[in-house]
Amino acid sequence: MSDNTRQALGLTKVKVNNIQTKINDMQTNWNGYNNVNYVLPNDAQVYIPVNKV
User: Fold this and answer.
1) In whole angstroms, how large is the CA radius of gyration of the chain?
2) 18-46 burial by CB neighbour count: b if 16+ within 10 A, else e?
3) Which of 43, 40, 45, 9 is nearest to 27 (CA)?
4) pLDDT attached to residue 19
C-alpha cells in the first residue's frame, strides 16, 4: 500500500521493516488484491472488537 501511495505522489519506494511487513513476507499466496487468503502465523487470531451493550 505504501508503495502505491508513494508512486502516486511521485516519490521513490522506501523499504519498510516492521512486524506487518514481516508477516506479509511470510504469506505464500496472499497478494492483497485478488488472493486474500491471509494466514496468521503461529495460530494467531484476528482481534474482533465486541460492542458492549
Assistant:
1) 15
2) eeeeeeeeeeeeeeeeeeeeeeeeeeeee
3) 40
4) 79
Sign of CA dihedral 9, 14, 19, 20: positive
pLDDT in tens, 1-53: 778 888 999 999 888 778 777 877 777 777 777 777 777 777 777 777 778 77
Q: How far is the C-alpha of 37 from the C-alpha of 28, rounded, in Å?
A: 9
Predicted confidence at residue 10, as pLDDT, reads: 94
CA distance 36 to 14: 24
Question: What distance in Å separates the CA atoms of residue 31 and residue 17, rounded to the nearest whole number?
Answer: 18
